[in-house]
């Protein structure tokens, strides 16, 4: 079986000349013909080189792996039962799915972050697609009552950044990002500011805590989409020089006169800005956590990526020892920015595998009586079935599921449809619902109870994100009701079963044909 699609992809705008005759191990056409202009990834790389590493068009897309991993969440199904109820009276008139409680809270101390649903919107940083859709992403998170994270490099990329002695004095872009959430914050959810190496050097988290009133910060070790720092593309020489001066790695070197001339002549159209690799050290990690607490952070999160198992163990141990409020673990395969395409497909531990290891490591710490932080699992989650399985696979430790591409897609669609409504050009397939925003977006009905006639002034993209979350919540409630789990804390690992022996072996989840064997014997007799 071939797991990778390695010859050509829409992500890099490449295709095989002979799509029905492709070598499964190289991805090239089985017969490479002299005279071909180079439509495949190898051929296009011969012309455009390193440009072909990244998905395109940059700034207008999010991307995710096309690799068909041997085990994913589709290899599990959800258990249901006809008996009893947990978290509610076992009464058919009371145990109905709208009664399922999906509210939760996290926090290591007495003060908690209250959430209307068990979701984190994964950090989106300095990419164009994040900035252009931030109103929907962050304001929608506030409307939905969930956590949203501002990703890395936002201050460093801010054209209007004010710096004094190498530290952030003011960042209008970060101010805007925080305000987009705070404008609709009503006591549920939170906005977190994430920091990488460059952010830390600039003092971004201290600025956010002291000047913007942010209460939650996130230390970033990595993510599931790539094994390197963040990157974006720059379309002007001026921006490339500006970011080079701010300390970023910019390729090719914009200070080189030969590079400047080649850019002016049109030999290439974009520079690449790269972030540095973080270097994890236990002593400095704990020192940094203490610094942030002294700076006023009420809640501290750690975000780690799909690194090797020893690094996952470090994340779990350090988060436990530091009594962090949240640990987010990201499985390989997803991406919301400009992650290198083949890296996104071929690097890192996929979500089901890394969550299984995560569960094992947390179990070992719990057995010793160690503090266990709230944990969020990330990596390709979009809809309610995956959310339920993600919570069950990591139960009782995984409290939240991190969503990235899905709410960003909701924001992008909402913005597009909202703009069409404003121009009086409602898409034909939506005209049956009406011509106004509050008619087209069904989530407006519930939001009108909160905002009255002001609902028509909410960003369409934010209403779209709220509406998407409401759908996922309803679906999650239905699955939970079917499992007779009427509150999140009752979800357990035996609420799912493995469809294959391999899935069972990897995760420790019971194989379908072995489920309930002891109870079956009691019912039927041995």
Strand order of the biggest β-sheet: 5-6-9-10-14-15-17-18
Assign the CATH topology of the largest domain.
TIM Barrel
CATH 2nd-level architecture of the largest domain: Alpha-Beta Barrel
What is the oligomeric state here? single chain
Biggest beta sheet attributes: 8 strands, parallel, barrel
Low-pLDDT runs of 5+ residues are: none
Short description:
The protein has helices at 41-48, 128-132, 134-144, 154-157, 172-182, 197-202, 204-211, 237-245, 257-264, 282-294, 309-321, 341-346, 351-367, 384-393, 405-422, 437-440, 443-451, 460-482, 501-507, 517-524, and strands at 63-64, 76-78, 104-106, 113-115, 119-124, 147-150, 162-164, 167-170, 190-195, 216-220, 231-234, 249-251, 271-274, 299-304, 326-330, 334-335, 374-378, 398-403, 496-498.
Features:
526 residues; alpha/beta; TIM Barrel; eight-stranded parallel barrel; three-stranded antiparallel β-sheet; 20 helices; globular
Commentary on this structure:
The chain is an alpha/beta fold and 526 residues long. The chain folds into 3 domains: 1-53, no CATH class; 59-229 and 278-526, TIM Barrel; 231-274, no CATH class. The protein has 20 helices and 19 strands. Strands 5-6-9-10-14-15-17-18 form an 8-stranded parallel barrel, surrounded by 8 helices. Helix 3 (134-144) runs parallel beside helix 5, helix 3 crosses helix 15 and helix 11 (309-321) crosses helix 13. It is globular and about 80 Å long. 46% of the residues are buried.
Topology:
Elements: H1 41-48, E1 63-64, E2 76-78, E3 104-106, E4 113-115, E5 119-124, H2 128-132, H3 134-144, E6 147-150, H4 154-157, E7 162-164, E8 167-170, H5 172-182, E9 190-195, H6 197-202, H7 204-211, E10 216-220, E11 231-234, H8 237-245, E12 249-251, H9 257-264, E13 271-274, H10 282-294, E14 299-304, H11 309-321, E15 326-330, E16 334-335, H12 341-346, H13 351-367, E17 374-378, H14 384-393, E18 398-403, H15 405-422, H16 437-440, H17 443-451, H18 460-482, E19 496-498, H19 501-507, H20 517-524
Parallel strand pairs: 5-6, 5-18, 6-9, 9-10, 10-14, 14-15, 15-17, 17-18
Antiparallel strand pairs: 1-16, 2-19, 3-4, 7-8, 11-13, 12-13
Helix pairs in contact: 3-5, 3-15, 3-18, 11-13, 14-18, 15-18
